[in-house]
Amino acid sequence: MPFDPNVLRRDFPILKKKFSASGKESDKQIPLVYLDNASATHKPRQVMDAVKNYYEESNSNVHRAIHKLGEKATYLYEESRKKIAGFINAESANEIIFTRGATESINLAASSWGRKFLVDGDEIILSEMEHHSNLIPWQQLSIELGVKLKFIPFLENGTLDLSKLESLFSDRTRLVAVTQMSNVFGTINNVKEIIRFSHSRNVSVFLDGAQSVSHIPVDVKDLDCDFLAASGHKMCGPTGIGFLYVKRKWLDQMPPYQFGGEMIGSVWLDRAEWAEIPYKFEAGTPNVAGAIGLGSAIDYLSKIGMKNIHEYEIKLTAYAREKLKEISDLKIFGNPPEQGGVLSFYLGKIHPHDVGQFLDNEGIAVRAGHHCAQPLMRKLAVPATVRASFYFYNTHEEIDKLVEGIIKVRKFFNHGI
Ligand code: PLP
Asked: Which fold has domain 47-303?
């Protein structure tokens, strides 16, 4: 079936909803233009049905019960793990650890791998464009262990300055942890080159895939990354579920991250042995419904095709950039050659929060803020930006509405046009 966002939109009940500026049902109802997909995407009916069906037909805990419901729940949960492995082309489903999302995935790696393999004086290379989730866990580790952090700078066009990469390496470099796609500029970073170079120095690479996995084809075998983190809610799945991919060679050596039920092999009063991988990293009852929903989201995305999604978003973003450029005083941050569906901008001297609030009253949902990237904002010398972020269900008409909305914002704040 040819790719058609208007057909796909029919799967998303929330996209049919209308809202009033005041929130009162008696006021004029306007359609929703949702352009905050880098924060969270909407869910198709298929994903909601998968979660509902689990609760209605197989609700039970996993891995423990020998009854039929428990077997069914375990089967569905493990099928989802296999689907994730297939989606990112992992060698085996055992390389996939279910987590609450990208943030927990990064904390898991920092806590488990970091504490096991890093010592005082070692170095980690991050970038200046990291989301706080891929900064603070490493920052805290550096404070605790005496590990030094170094940063790949970004250039004005929103790309990483890889000409600086070599100079950041030393014989104490142990890890490079970078985002595959920036949540502020939309830059798709050349992580393949970063991984190639790092591995040539025997240095491991952690990829924050929170933005990339939902928008571009990601193949961990082809990339050869050591770790990859992602969140379900950014890829049509439920909230509170995500995963960490860990290359097999690390898994056996990494200690558990949390302790309790589900993650043990045998327990005595004074000691315990751990379960097999990946279960030793999944302490306690997991988010079974979330994992099943994520499996269904992966089925949904795979049916559309990640290549189709990426190609469509390239066109949509180019269209948005051209249209926004026509608005005087509007400054788009970054213009990377490889970009996903994210545009951050500033409108004259109008505070991004005012722009966001005004647009919301017009039925247009964008993000206004620091986007959990305060060091990046500081380098841009702005407190915040407005961010419009797209997904495969957004249309060119919605971009037109965004542009009309921004023109109204300018007029309202007396800037003329
Ligand atoms: N990394 C990036 C690049 C992000 O954009 C986000 C969320 O916006 C995260 C990490 C954290 O994801 P989550 O809040 O789902 O854990």
From this structure: Aspartate Aminotransferase; domain 2 (3.40.640)
Q: Which two tokens stand for residue 76?
A: 């569905």
Considering only 17-21, 73-77, 326-330, 346-350, which range has the smallest mean pLDDT?
A: 17-21
Spans of all domains in the chain: 5-42+305-413, 47-303
Q: Strand 364-365 and strand 367-369: pairing?
A: unpaired
Closest CA to 124 of 112, 134, 111, 138: 138
| Fold type of domain 5-42+305-413 | Aspartate Aminotransferase, domain 1 (3.90.1150)
DSSP code string of 329-362 = TEEEE---SSB-SEEEEEETTB-HHHHHHHHHHT
CA nearest to 222, candidates 186, 191, 188, 177 = 191
Question: Which pLDDT belongs to residue 55?
Answer: 97
Residue 23: pLDDT above 90? no
pLDDT for the residue numbered 416: 52
Task: State yes or no: pLDDT of 21 exceeds 80.
Answer: no
Cα 138 to averaged position of ligand 1 atoms, centre (Å): 15
Mean pLDDT for all residues in the chain: 96
Residue with tokens 């569905």: 76
pTM for the whole structure: 0.96
Q: Whose CA is nearest to atom 14 of ligand 1?
A: 103
Residue nearest to atom 12 of ligand 1 (CA): 102
Q: Which residues contact 326 (CB under 8 A, 6 or more apart)?
A: 403
Is the pLDDT score of 1 beyond 70? no
Q: How far is the CA of 135 from the centre of ligand 1 (A)?
A: 11
Please state the φ and ψ torsions of residue 253, each to the nearest 5 degrees: -80, -20
What is the distance between the alpha carbons of residues 179 and 212, in angstroms, rounded to a whole number? 8
Please list, residue by residue across 46-60, b when 16 or more beta carbons sit within 10 angstroms of its beta carbon and e when fewer do.
ebbebbeebeeebeb
How many Å lie between the centroid of ligand 1 and the Cα of residue 175?
Answer: 20
pLDDT band at 22 (very low <50, low <70, confident <90, very high): confident
- What ranges make up the beta strands (E) of 180-279? 204-208, 227-231, 242-246, 264-267, 272-274
Element housing 377 (H / E): helix 374-380
Q: Which long-range contacts (CB under 8 A, 24 or more apart) does 6-9 make?
A: 6/395, 8/44, 8/304, 8/392, 8/393, 9/393, 9/395
The response to whether residue 131 sits with its C-beta less than 6 Å from ligand 1 reads: yes
Active site residues: 372
* Residue 156 burial class via C-beta count within 10 angstroms: exposed 0-12, middle 13-18, buried 19 and up: exposed
